[in-house]
Every structure is written in structure tokens, then in C-alpha cells.
Amino acid sequence: MKRAKNKSMMILVIIFIVTLTSSIGYSALQSNLKVTADLNVLKDYVPDGTLYDMMHHISEMDNASSKYVSNPSGVDFHKGSSDTNGKGVYELHTTVNDNYPIYYYRGEVNNNVIFANFCWKIIRTTETGGVKLIYNGEPSDDGKCDNTGLNAQIGTSAYNENYDDAKYVGYKYGENDSTDSTIKTKVDKWYEENIESKYSSYLEDTIFCNDRREYACSYPNCYEPRQRNFENRTPSLSCAEEDKFTVANKKLKYPVGLITIDEAVYAGGEYSDKSSKYYLKTGYSYWTMSPYCFTVNNAHMWHTYSSGGFSDGYAYSVIGVRPVVSLKHETKYLSGNGTKETPFLITPLPDKPKPILDKLTASSYLDNIKSEYVESKTGIDFSKISSDTNGKGIYELHTTVNDKYPIYYYRGAVTDNNIIFAGFCWKIIRTTETGGVKLIYNGSPTSDNKCTNTTGSNTQIGTSAYNEVSDDAKYVGYKYDNDEVDSTIKTKIESWYKTNIDEKKDANGKSYTTYIEDLEFCNDRSSRVSGSNVFYGAYDRNYYNGNRKPSLECPQDDDKFTVANKKLTYPVGLITNDETAYAGGVWDIANNTYYLYTNQWYWTMSPSALDGSGAYVWRVSSAGGINTGYYVLDTSGGIRPVVNLVPTTQVTGIGTSDNPYIIQ
């Protein structure tokens, strides 16, 4: 009952917001209405898509009791964050009348961000409406941000390698702060290598505070961050003018620095606390930018504890480094809700190269069972063309399930089997017996690397007769006369391959042939004689008596064509009739919806028959069916070369025509 009530209240809040927005306008709503709720409200209400605005709408005042603050006077900074002392987003009450009030995250919260291909945690907003982030490692392959310990930092460093003078509490030190600290050098170098060239336009030049103001204590030098956060427990974001570090005042080379101890206290940390439950706890110690004191011979800086909370440490200690940057006020996030699983996404993550086999096997179905696009309980019916009820997608060949590398094949009206290789577009046909991937040529990509060819002559390298003579059974051969003479089509394919693949280099100067595996191409000439006619294996499997049982077996060793057995000059051939059947083609039935349809007819490598008129080889018809063939001497047959990528091939992209797989 309670859940239903809360859901109803949420609906009423949303209706109210929408109604109010319509009646008073968004700017008025933004300044006068605050949505105070848990972070899951984000899935329902994100007004303008900026992090600042989001934090504004889900914040609570920090000087009053609220859902996770039991104290009537608000958050108690003598204590760490908890379910009764702060968890969520809070507005710093001393800034309510500022142009940009400060909002900060506190406790165990969903404040994860992906920016510049790295994970970050939101600390707070800035005096100019920016959003300050602290580094939190690299995203996982599936875009999650769940790093702790060493993975949450860029490395380790001393704050300063020298420590026997008070000046070494400085982020810069010496006359007019002319010398960079050890840690600043490391932070700047990381920024230059990872942020500056591509992502600096997203960042504002905000203040990083190295507050070196002193107060009287028992040590030679004590600094105000110690007084505020050890003695008084009254954090502050104020900073002496000479301790403000920005690019504009030339104390910073880049707009990057470290978190302050005051920000860590606002976030929920407590001095010497070993069990603080807050987002800055990583299980590893790391530096802040705030000085603590100078004793007789040692400079001390504030740092976080590995087990939670914070304390002081010698400046020469080698501990973690977590850079801090500040996004501009107007920066919008593309998606996400701040959780570890779905971080706020500021800049898209690049698609990390993954083995192409992994991509294909992730969404496959067995082909002998009922599945999403197969209505028959016994699986795909190869006597019928591919369709929404007879196969569309990636299927695992059930007869290979126990093989080291089961075969996966594309079937039907798929749109995600596009790949760019060697500067050409290809369609993925299937995987190979070694875990590689078989491709069929599909033309050239557009200038922006899209594979938009679907029909027409652009999907092939040209036309050719299969052989220029047809009056003998030998002319169904990809080679003939004891496999010593190349067919007409083989000569043309290998000439194209030599120029466009073998002699062509990638960015590293390697021939594209190095990406290709030498696997067999089957020119199945197994046959039976009926009267004066000869019928070949693919004819009986895919036409005779309605048999329709395609196979990837090549019955005769003599019909297996590879470079290794010297029947091929280059590792390139043609698709087989059986592969076409697996893809969705059926003898003499039009199919203009599967991926092999091009509105052109083109050759396969599979012999069909020999009769009194001549030799035939199977073809894919212009209507998309598979046909027992034209005479081998027909010169209008299209040529679509086929190659096999090596099993280790890695790709980016998703396989669509607009975002094809691209080989890395």
C-alpha cells in the first residue's frame, strides 16, 4: 500500500510540474520550484539536461532537517555522512542569494559521470554554475563506473619530494609561486595527454584553492584548513586571493587541480573516521590540495584515508592522485541517471574494439528450435525463404554445437551485418570452422564511412562469365583440367584481390592479406548421373525432390580450394549455394527482403548440372531466389568476392549501415 501511495504522489508531482511549467514558464519554475526526492526522480524529470539544473531540482537545504537529516538545524559537520546526517544533494545555505548557489553531493550517492572516456564523481557546483568532478578511473567495457582503490586514480605521487620547508605545502611554491609541486607536474602531464586536445572546450577555468592562510597553534606553521576541519569542524569554500589557482591568473597551466579537505567534509568525510560511508572512500589514500601544518622539519598535507575519513600526511609520502576538473555551466549530459550502471554521459564513449566473434554469438539462437523469429517447434524450414516467422537474425547451426567453434550465420532481413574492411563494405555471411568470419563484397563506403549499398551493380566488382566454354562437365570447375587451369571468374577475382587487398596497406604498412585466413572454398563437384545428365551435390541438397537440406560439408577433398593446397593464388573465392540457403534463399522463390538480395544476379561457387545444352553453376537471381543456374558462359553474371577474416579480428561499431563494424 505504501508503494502505491508513493507512486501516486510521484504522478501528482509530475502532473503538477508539467501544468506549472505550461502556466508560468520554465525560467520561473526553475527559480521557484524545487523537486526534493531521491535520485530516481531523474528518470522522470530532467528539465534542460544540465548537471547543474539536475542538482538544483533534487537538492535539500543543508541547514534544515530533511529526509536524510534528522537534526532540526541541518547537517552536522562534526560527524560523517549517514542516513540521518546527510545523503543526497544539498544546497549550501550560505550561498542561497548568490547568482549560482552551491549544490554538493554528500554520502553514498549516485553521482557518477562519464566524461572524456573516463569515470568521474560529481563533487559540487561552482560559484559560476559549473560542476566540479573528481577522477574515478576508466569505464568498464559495458560503460559502467564502479572503480575503487588503485583503479580510481591516475597513479601515485609525493605531494612534494622536498618537505623540510613550509613552502612545500604549496601546489606551487617559491617566489611568486614560480615552481610546480611534484603532484602538479603529474596532474598537468596527465591532463595534457588525456584531456587538452579533445575535451578542454567542455571545461571552465574555475578556482582551485591551496589555502595557505595561517593561524596560531603549537606548531611552527598551522593552516586554516586544519582549524576549520580538525578543531572547529566548520568547512568553508572561501579562499585567500593569493591561494586561488586558475589559468587566468597564470598559476595553472591547465584547468585541473585536486579536491580540498573542505569539499571532502561537505561530501561526508570525518577526521580519523575509519568507516565513513561516502562516495569519496575508495579503499586507498589520496591527496587533497589543502595544507595541514609545518612541523620542525616536515610539511604536512591533508589526505584521505584508505579506510575512510581523512587525516594529515607527510608531503613526501607517495599516495594516490585523483585529478579534479570543472564542467561549464551549460554542459548537458546525453543520458544516464548517475548510478554506477548508468552514469551521466557527457561525451560518448568510443566503441572499444572487441572480437567480432563475441559480437555475433551474443544474440544468436539455435536453428532447430522455436525462437523469436522462428515459429516452427523444429526450427528453420529451409524449403521456405527467410521471414519474420522462418528466420531473421543470427543462428547457431545445431549440428555444430559440440564443435570447438560452432557455426553462426546471418539469415533474413538483417541490418547489422555490415563491415568495412580494406576500404570496402562487406556483408557478414557466417563464422568459420576456426572461429573466423566469412564476408561477401558489398561495394564502397560513403565518405563518412557508411555502407548504404543495398541493390544494384555497386554491390559487385563487375560481371563475368564463369567459364567461357560450357560444353563439358569440367567447366563447372573453379579450376579444371586436373585443376591446373583457372576458370574465367577465378582469374578476374584474383586480379581484383591482388590490386585491392594484397597490394593495399593498412595504416601500419601491413598488407590487408594479413587479416585474412586461408580457409577452404568449396567447389562441390560430387555428382550423380541420370541418363545423359549430371547433377552435382548442391543440386541434390537444395532442389532435387524438394530435399532442401543445405550443408557446409565439402564431400570431396579435390573440391576444397585453398592457398595451402595450391588451388588458390590468393585466399578469396565465392559464396556457395548452401550458404545462400542458410541466409534465406530458396530455389526459384523470390526473396527481396534478405541481405543477399541486390536486384542483380550473381554467381555462386556451386556447380548445378550438365545437360545436353551445357554446364550450369548455381546463381543468386535478381529476384533474390537461388536458381539452378545459367550456362557458365553467360557474361552478365555479377561477381561478389568472399574472404575469411582471421579469428583474432577485432572491430568497433554495431554493424548497421550507418555504423558498420570497422576492423581495428
A few lines on this structure:
By secondary structure, this protein is α+β, with helices and mostly antiparallel strands. The chain folds into three domains: 1-29; 34-345, no CATH class; 354-663, no CATH class.
pLDDT < 50 runs, ≥5 residues: 1-45
Largest sheet: 7 strands, mixed
User: What is the total domain count?
Assistant: 3
> Helix amount, in percent?
10-25%
Number-wise, the strands total: 40
Shape: elongated
Mean pLDDT: 90
Strand order, biggest sheet? 20-39-40-24-25-26-38
End-to-end CA span:
54 Å
Residues in β-strands, percent: 15-25%
Count of runs of 4 or more consecutive helical residues: 11
Class computed from helices, strands and strand pairing: alpha+beta
Rg calc: 34 Å
Word description of this protein:
The N terminus is likely disordered. The chain is built from 11 helices and 40 strands. The chain is elongated and about 115 Å long. 16% of the residues lie in helices and 24% in strands. The protein has 664 residues and is α+β, with helices and mostly antiparallel strands. α1 crosses α2. The protein folds into 3 domains: 29 residues; 312 residues, no CATH class; 310 residues, no CATH class. Strands 20-39-40-24-25-26-38 form a 7-stranded mixed beta sheet. The chain has a 5-stranded mixed beta sheet with strand order 18-6-5-4-19.
Provide key terms for this protein:
3 domains; alpha+beta; five-stranded mixed β-sheet; 664 residues; seven-stranded mixed β-sheet
SSE arrangement:
Layout: H1 2-24, H2 26-32, H3 51-58, E1 59-61, E2 88-91, E3 103-106, E4 112-115, E5 118-125, E6 131-135, E7 155-157, E8 172-173, E9 179-180, H4 182-194, H5 196-199, E10 208-209, E11 214-215, E12 221-223, H6 224-232, E13 244-245, H7 261-267, E14 287-294, E15 299-304, E16 310-314, E17 319-321, E18 324-327, E19 344-345, E20 354-355, H8 356-361, E21 364-366, E22 393-396, E23 408-411, E24 418-421, E25 424-431, E26 437-441, E27 462-464, E28 479-480, E29 485-486, H9 488-502, E30 521-522, E31 527-530, E32 533-536, H10 537-542, E33 560-561, H11 577-583, E34 602-611, E35 614-620, E36 626-631, E37 637-639, E38 642-645, E39 650-652, E40 661-663
Parallel strand pairs: 1-2, 4-19, 21-22, 24-40
Antiparallel strand pairs: 2-3, 4-5, 5-6, 6-18, 7-17, 8-9, 10-13, 11-12, 12-14, 14-15, 15-16, 20-39, 22-23, 24-25, 25-26, 26-38, 27-37, 28-29, 30-33, 31-32, 32-34, 34-35, 35-36, 39-40
